[in-house]
Amino acid sequence: MRTREHASPVTTASQTGLTFILILSGLMAFTSLSTDIYLPAMPTMAEDLHGNVELTITGFLIGFTIAQLIWGPISDHMGRRKPLFIGMVLFIIGSAGCALSTSITQIVFWRVFQALGACTGPMLARAMIRDLFARTRAAQMLSTLVLVMAIAPIAGPLIGGQIIRLSTWHSIFWLLVVIGALMFISLNWLPETLPEDKRVKASLAGAFRNYRSLLTNGRFMRYTLSLTFYYVGAYAFITGSPFVYISYYHVDPQHYGWLFALNIIGVMAMSVVNRRLVQRHALEQLLKYATLLAALAAVVLALLVKLESGGVVAIIITVFLFFSMNGIIAATSTAAALDAVPNIAGSASALIGALQYGSGIISSLLLAAFSDGTPWTMAWIIALFTLLSAVLAFRAKR
User: Fold this and answer.
1) What's the CA gap between 285 and 359, in Å, rounded?
2) Of 15, 92, 107, 127, which is least surrounded by CB within 10 A?
3) pLDDT confidence bin for 115, thresholds 50/70/90
4) What is the CATH number of the domain that holds 123?
């Protein structure tokens, strides 16, 4: 039976128009754009900087994870817009630092700094949606954001591949400086969605104590961990695929961008489908079916890789099926989790984001620890954690 919904009284046509959606989509895209755009350059960066370039992703995710836990309570206490402006400034500085780096140590440091600002984008975009919309409508809006923001992971590797062909990897990070500056300017058209009377009145220290109640809320945590485990698998692909495709299967870096884009097209398609499905089916049911399909695709991927059957085509097809389910899993799990704790949406969104993107740390560490130069490590990580995601999805409402 569907939960009865009550729209927030601050919802207005001007706040949810095209400009509002585009700005929020841009904010949601910051994470993928900050990483995906230089994926084709990773082998070149590894040669140039003489180090483990995967650490640049790990460093970014560490900063992204920790900083969200700080910004969440701050946004519940002081509103959404101020943290966004500060975050964009930090992102611009961090991107410039990356562009000027001459060693792995330097670029990892600046990637962490970059993440301190980038994390405010997707975290507060989710919180702003929950400020304005209840359960089903929030899921629809999140699907819309996923659909629009999917342009970033499609365009990112394609742009990065062209830049690395015409220039050096440093130019990629200078482009991120420009994008950050444009995003900062666009925030002037973004309304505040958390009015004074809805903000957490306790001290900032008291606001941080909300995490205790979130961590002990079984329903919230099951939805959140289902998403988290799915993203361990997703980040295993994002981090491992440049080396699987480019180094192992000798795919041209420019063509790698198109292969990556194929998966995002699947995400976009399922986001469109999900907007219709949430009107007819409970979020819990959609999450169950989506994680189950993703798990089946992941298991087939692992089996084919282990048997050395199908080559790169088998990986492309099974990863496409696995990745496409993100269009349903991300929106339904996030909306259901936030619906369980509507009064502290900023902190809840921060914890969701911290665990979601912190999952990338697990992926990077597992890949670094167990990589054998073949696609097998990437494949079994995707399969194992997607199965765990499905198990939690089936237990989420208990």
Assistant:
1) 24
2) 15
3) very high
4) 1.20.1250.20
